[in-house]
Amino acid sequence: MDLFSSISQRKSCRKYIEKPLSSAELEEVKEAIKGFEPLFPDVTLNYRFVTSTKGMFNVKAPHYLVISGKGEEGEQENAGFVGQQLMLWLNARGLGGVWLGASKDAGENRKPSDIVVLAFGKVQGSPNRELSQFKRKKISEITNDTEDKGVNAIRIAPSGMNFQPWYFEKKADKILVYRQILKPPMSIIYKLTRVDIGIALCHYAVASKHYGADFNFQVGGSAEEKRGYEFFGYANIID
Ligand SMILES: Cc1cc2nc3c(=O)[nH]c(=O)nc-3n(C[C@H](O)[C@H](O)[C@H](O)COP(=O)(O)O)c2cc1C
User: What structural domains and CATH numbers belong to the chain?
Assistant: First the structure.
């Protein structure tokens, strides 16, 4: 399924129809998750469906997916990468979703290694918006190559508190990926910038596929330091 068109039409949905999806529809969601590519195949995540969550900025929805790990490196980026594929998939089916970074499973299965929650279901109103309605940084604030198709797909990606904590530097045949290091007080209230990087890379991967290019991401390697940012890795460019 080409998820590309959902990138430029999706929005965070915060008003849901109370009626849950049928068990067959929920089964399709589970199957879809199994089919999504991870960013790091060796980093395992667990997916749990719950019906009640709590926390600041919580949104009432018929379904919640809790993504959890074991506390290992790469889990947050993987959660962003896989979770955003689900968000685009839901949008492509006329359903809505919203990431909930501050929400926790309200049931007894809550674990310290839970990473993030996604709410989803049938929405009141439309799950879509016009491209002109996205509130985002200018492309020149997040890259030195404003024409890059993949970075243009990242520009409109969702991020916690809409911080867009990323910079993408084109160098030779690579896109260098940097994560912004938030300063207090933002860094105290928001700790999921690694999930945001995974979401950004998901948009890059979906755009790569759409334009017929490979998506290869390498974590680490050498790169010039960028003040206020941490180098994360590099991807191949889309030509
Ligand atoms: C990791 C993450 C955590 C988020 N947490 C919340 C949240 O707790 N509550 C909420 O209403 N929205 C949350 N959002 C949604 C963002 O506020 C939203 O993506 C951003 O403002 C951009 O708007 P858009 O998604 O409609 O394009 C979160 C988004 C991400 C990616």
Answer: 4-121 (3.40.109.10), 135-236 (3.40.109.30)
Cβ–Cβ contacts within 10 Å for residue 46, how many? Answer: 13
Ligand 1 atom nearest the C-alpha of 59 is 11
Q: What is the mean pLDDT of the chain?
A: 97
- Ligand 1: atom nearest CA of 56 is 8
pTM over cut 0.90: yes
Contact of 23 with 58, CB cutoff 8 Å:
no
Q: Which residues contact 110 (CB under 8 A, 6 or more apart)?
A: 104
Ligand 1 pocket, mutate which of 162, 193, 199 (most atoms under 8 A from CB): 162
Question: Is 101 close to ligand 1, i.e. is its CB under 6 Å away?
Answer: yes
